[in-house]
Amino acid sequence: MALEQGCVQVYTGNGKGKTTAALGLALRAVGRGLKVCVFQFIKGGGRYGEHLAAEKLAPLLTIIQTGRPGWVNTKDITDDRRTAQEALVQALELLTSGEFDLFICDEINGAVGFGLIDVEQVLDMISRKPEKTELVLTGRNAHERVIEAADLVTEMREIKHYYKAGIAARTGIEM
Amino acid sequence: MALEQGCVQVYTGNGKGKTTAALGLALRAVGRGLKVCVFQFIKGGGRYGEHLAAEKLAPLLTIIQTGRPGWVNTKDITDDRRTAQEALVQALELLTSGEFDLFICDEINGAVGFGLIDVEQVLDMISRKPEKTELVLTGRNAHERVIEAADLVTEMREIKHYYKAGIAARTGIEM
Q1: Do the Cβ atoms of A49 and B57 come within 8 Å?
Q2: How many CB atoms lie within 10 A of CB A123?
Q3: Which one of A13, B21, B69, B123 is least enclosed by Cβ atoms within 10 Å?
Q4: Cα of B75 to nearest chain A Cα, Å
């Protein structure tokens, strides 16, 4: 099957659940036989639970990780920007191929926030989305022009987080 | 593997992404070999994409639907309350069996909001959670006592929703 109409969804905010919601969308879509690509920006740091699960849902679910290991070097973004720009070219190729019913650009809002990708490039991506492809953009601090261009926007607000109680990221839950 | 420590997470608010985030948690956990139960309250209405996908991730992922077909009869909750109370007994049995590493009570907050389950019953459930089981509670209008008892709370806020632009729920995305 294919979607009759593809929309643009944004998950932003400082709360837990943005990438996780995108993964949930992927799971539901795969259940319906849709083809899904989760394209991750600034996430080069190792394989998480979702990458292991993706193998069980292949060939419908593909997860592509890009970014350098470790976090963005905010003091000098040169290398991170080059990596993100190369990733963007790859993402655009995959998106515009029309091969995927659901295309998730995970952490692309963060990449814009760090100056690794320009907001105009995200708007260009949105404008080039195939009509029947659902495009999902995640990450904190989504740019107001991206919010304007989107059909659905949810802000995940942190009301309470256990990091503050000293609980670190746990394998199987956060990664 | 098993979690070293299980927490209580709440996803609430009027925005899209609560159940979806819980499904994403399930996907990640399954990738790590954790055993997951998604127990759905007031959701008796047919099989969605997540139910079809669950078959591909069995036996690690189990999704149980409870509730009557159609939406809650808010004019007379007698039947819905009986159904929800029976479901709660089943959920408690499964949760306290310790068989699951991640136990998701989907829409339980909504069930409390409709008066189908009492908030004291949810607090009792939280108190009886096995130490190493992660318990996730979703649904709008989470009760303040549930928020108080939780370790992590995220509010999904609707900034923009395409329902308002006349786009109905789509197979593969919302269901």
Answers
A1: no
A2: 15
A3: B69
A4: 31
* A72 domain residue, yes or no: yes
Cα separations (Å) of A150 from A37, A38, B13, B86?
Answer: 19, 18, 20, 41
Number of A to B CB contacts under 8 A, please give it.
Answer: 206
* Residue A1 reports pLDDT greater than 80: no
Q: Which domain holds residue A74?
A: 8-158
pLDDT tens by residue, A63-74 = 999 999 888 999
CATH number for the domain that contains residue A50:
3.40.50.300
The pLDDT value recorded for residue A33 is: 96
Measured distance CA(A56)–CA(B43) in Å, rounded = 27
Q: Is residue A165 part of a domain?
A: no
Judge: A16–B154 Cβ closer than 8 Å, yes or no: yes
Is residue A170 within 8 A of residue B5, CB to CB? The reply is: yes
Nearest to A172 among B101, B158, B170 (CB): B101
The number of distinct structural domains making up chain A is: 1
- Summarize pLDDT for B1-22 with one digit per residue, the tens: 789 899 999 999 999 999 999 9
Place of tokens 């949930």: A24
How many angstroms separate the CA of residue A92 from the nearest CA in chain B?
22
pLDDT for residue A71: 86
Distance of CA B171 to the CA centre of its chain: 20
Cα end-to-end span (Å), chain A:
31
Residues of A in contact with B149 (CB under 8 A): none
Which residues of chain A have a CB within 8 Å of the CB of B156?
A: 15, 17, 154-157
> pTM of the prediction?
0.95
Q: Is residue B130 part of a domain?
A: yes
Specify if B132 maps to a domain: yes
The per-residue pLDDT for range A5-30, each reduced to its tens digit, is: 999 999 999 999 999 999 999 999 99
Contact list, B50 vs chain A (CB under 8 Å): 24, 27-28, 31
